[in-house]
Amino acid sequence: MTKLTRNLISSIVFFLISLLLVSCSATNATSRIRSRHRPCKRLVFYFHDILYNGHNARNATSAIVGAPAWGNTTILAGQNHHFGNVVVFDDPITLDHNLHSTPVGRAQGFYLYDNKEIFTSWLGFSFVFNSTQHKGSINFAGADPLMNKTRDISVIGGTGDFFMSRGVATLMTDAFEGEVYFRLRVDVKLYECWS
Amino acid sequence: MTKLTRNLISSIVFFLISLLLVSCSATNATSRIRSRHRPCKRLVFYFHDILYNGHNARNATSAIVGAPAWGNTTILAGQNHHFGNVVVFDDPITLDHNLHSTPVGRAQGFYLYDNKEIFTSWLGFSFVFNSTQHKGSINFAGADPLMNKTRDISVIGGTGDFFMSRGVATLMTDAFEGEVYFRLRVDVKLYECWS
Amino acid sequence: MTKLTRNLISSIVFFLISLLLVSCSATNATSRIRSRHRPCKRLVFYFHDILYNGHNARNATSAIVGAPAWGNTTILAGQNHHFGNVVVFDDPITLDHNLHSTPVGRAQGFYLYDNKEIFTSWLGFSFVFNSTQHKGSINFAGADPLMNKTRDISVIGGTGDFFMSRGVATLMTDAFEGEVYFRLRVDVKLYECWS
C168 to chain B: which residues are within 8 Å by CB? Predict the structure, then answer.
C-alpha cells in the first residue's frame, strides 16, 4: 500500500466519523440531554400558603372551596385528616425562606386532602413566572404524602422558558404554623429540556 | 493507488453513510420529528362555555361546583375576581366561531379561578373526539392568565389518534358575554407525535 | 489492490460501524425503548371505590366534595347524570378482583362527572406504591367516558420506580353496585421508561 493510499484512508475515516456523529445528533434535533442522574435544569424555589380561616381575608392566599358532607368551607374538616377538603391557591414564590422576600412568581392551582388515616394530598398547579429572570410556566401534578420529609411529584409540562419540560419536583415542608401557614421548598429537576 | 482501489473506497464511504444514517434514525424508533420551531401536528378548534346561572339550565354546558366560604354555587363570587370558584364543563368543540356549528367533539373537565387581584384560572381538561375525522383524546393542564390576549398551557398526553402526544396549546378568548358565555380559540401545537 | 489494503479497509469498515452505532445510542442516553406496539412496561391493577352516602362512614373510601347548585355533597345529583359532582378518593389497589385482598398501593386523587346526557367523568389521580414490589407513584389524567367497555387515559408522569414514565392506561369497569361501589381494572402500558 502506498503512503498516499494510507493518508487517503485516514482522511476518509476522520471525515466519516465527523459526518455521522453530526447526523446522529441532528436526528435527535433540539439539544436534549437525557440522564436520570443529571437533570438538564435544576431550580429551587419556596412557596408560601396562607389558608383563609374566616379571620384573615386580607392576607390569605388560599381558600377551601370543596368539603365533604361532614365539613364546611371555612375550617378544614376536623375529623378524617381533612379528607375531602379542596383548596384553591395563589401563593407567592420566593427564592429564599422569607415570606416577605420579593416574589419571583406565583404558584397557582389546587390541592386536596385525600386520606382518612394520615395527611396526604394531591396537587395540580403551575409555577407562573413573568420576570426578567424567567418567563413562562411549569406545570405539576402528583400525590403528596405530606408527612414524609421529602416527596416527589411530576413536572408534566411547561411553556415559555420551560417549553415542553418534563421532570420531577421534590417537595419538602420547610415550615408550618398550625393550619394557617405552610412553606414548601420545591426542588425542580428537569430531565427533558428543549432549548 | 489503482483506479479499482479508489472506486472500492468510494463505494464503502457511500455504503457506510447510508447504513449509519439508517441506524441512527432506527434507534429513535417511532417516527418522531422534534423541533421547537415546527410542530409535528397542528390543529385549531373553538370551544363554547355557557355557565349555569340559575336561569339557563337547558342551555348551560358548565356549572359552578366549588366556592369559597364567601361565595356560592349559583353565581360566581362577586369579590376577589371569582377566587375559589370551581367550574365543571362539557363544552361543544367547533371548527369555526359559530356556537351552532356541528360539534366535532367535546371539551370536558374543569377550571378554577385562582387569583384575588386579576382574573386567572387553572385548567384540567380533555378534548374528546369520536368522529370520522378524529378518534381519541387530547389532555391539557395549565395556568390561564385569561386577561392576556394569548396564553399557553401544556398538552400533557393523548390517546387514540393523539396517542402519547405532547405539546403546547395557545388559548385566546375569542368572545365573551358577561359571565355567562365565552368562546376560546385553542391552537393545539404538538411537538411529540407517535405515528 | 494488495491483500493488505483489502484487510485494512475491512477492519476500518467494521470499526466505523461499531463506533458509530455506539455513538448513536449514546446520544439517546438512558435506555429508552420506544414502540407504539410494545410497551416497555405493563402492569394490571384493580382499584375499589366505596362512595360515602351518609350511612357508610367507616367503609367509605371516597366522598363527594363538590356539587352544582341543584345538588349536595351527600348524594350524587339525581338529575343530569351527576353532572358537576366532584369526588375525592383514596382507594385500595389490589392485584385481583377481590376487595379484601391485601392492597399493594393506594389510588389517590379525584374524579368529577362532566356530562349532562350520559355518564362521563374526568380523572386526576396517582397510584402510590410503597411495598417491596414497587416504590414510587404513577400519575394519571384524562377523560373517562365510563359507559364504554374500555377507555384510555394518559399516564402523565411518575416517580421512584416509575421515574419519568409516560403511557396510556386502559380502564374497564369490572364491577359496580348501585352508586356506592365500583371496581376499575387498570391496564397500565408505559411507552416511555427510564431505567
Answer: 157, 159, 163-164
Joined together, the cell numbers standing for residue A104 give: 419571583
Question: What whole-number distance in Å separates Cα of residue B125 and Cα of residue B132?
Answer: 22
Contact at 8 Å (CB) between B151 and B8? no
By residue range, what is the domain housing residue B45? 39-192
| Cβ under 8 Å to A: B residues 33-52 | 33-36
Secondary structure class of A113 (helix, strand, coil) = strand
Instruction: Report which DSSP code applies to B6.
Output: H
Distance CA C71, CA C112 (A): 13
Residue C137 and residue C84 share a domain: yes
* Same-domain check for residues C99 and C148: yes
pTM of the predicted protein model: 0.86
Instruction: Report chain B residues whose CB lies below 8 A from the CB of C33.
Output: 29
User: pLDDT tens digit string along C62-111?
Assistant: 999 999 999 989 888 888 899 999 999 999 999 999 999 999 999 999 99
Rounded-to-10 torsion of CA B171, B175, B179, B180: -100
Q: Partners for B (CB, 8 Å, 3+ pairs)? A: A, C
B110/B183 same-domain check:
yes
Is A21 in the same domain as A91?
A: no
Q: C143 vs B141: CB contact, 8 Å cut-off?
A: no
Using one digit for the tens of pLDDT, what is the confidence trace for C14-32? 666 555 554 444 444 333 4
C83 touches chain B (CB under 8 A): yes
Which candidate from C73, C125, C126 shows the least CB-CB separation from A69? C73
> What is the C-alpha separation between B55 and B148, in angstroms, rounded?
30
